[in-house]
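Final report, results section. Input specification for complex C-07:
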Amino acid sequence: MNCRECKEHLFEYLDRELTPQIETEIRRHLVECPPCGEEFDFDKLFLQFLQARCRAQGAPLELKRRILNELFDE
Amino acid sequence: MTPPTPPIPPAPPASAPGGQAADAEKRASFEREALVHLDSLYRVALRLTGNAAEADDLVQETMLKAYRAWHQFERGTNAKGWLLTILRHAFINEYRRRTRHPETVDIDAIEPFSVFQEVQDDDPQGTFFDRIVDDEVLRAIDTLPEQFRETVVLSDVEGMSYEEIARVLEVPVGTVKSRLFRARRMLQQKLYDYAVGMGYIKGTSK
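Structure output:
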């Protein structure tokens, strides 16, 4: 696998959306090619940062209460 | 204050065999399989509508519709995806018209920008991102074109697979991939520009 093919699969790789075979080929390329390895690490860390910043928020308690009332007439 | 009550289909007569037991079972299964996704629905609704009051209404309406249609939900399949599909349809039909205008985006016209190329010498791990707070990240997501915003929310906020996202958005998996790629690149660029503006990282002359 060359650099271009590898980068085409970047997010699919990080999202674990590839077949085990392609995943293995990419992993091998990343070990052999430090520039690609660095770029994948950068995006991996970016996704971790993004996901950590976005997943904290939940529905307000008042909304939960409103919905339970509405559904079950409590 | 009581919220307005939409019409509710007539309840089965109390004398119907298993009527009350069936109601209790419906409620229990709905609580177990649907209500547990309330936080997810709220997060998605907030990003779609862009404001808390409308997100509240959209989620409430979604839960009501879902409860009425609960017999149609195929047990054991993905309830979160099913609920998000209902939410998205309600948003498109009733809210989007009032709030935001749907933009059509020429995906190919957006040239992905590589932040990595900019920072690989100074900060190849992108540690400057860590200084950006939650609200700023959410604000950046809110400025994405709608097609990109909903894709990135389902993926990065809700952690859904490409296949699940494709089903909710009713587009091919390939479309999910290309939107996600461009959405994340745009987001990276916005957050990088913000970090440069805040002095978290030295900008290069572009």
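The longest helix of chain A spans residues 34-54. DSSP finds five helices and no strands in chain A. This concludes the modelling results for the funded period.
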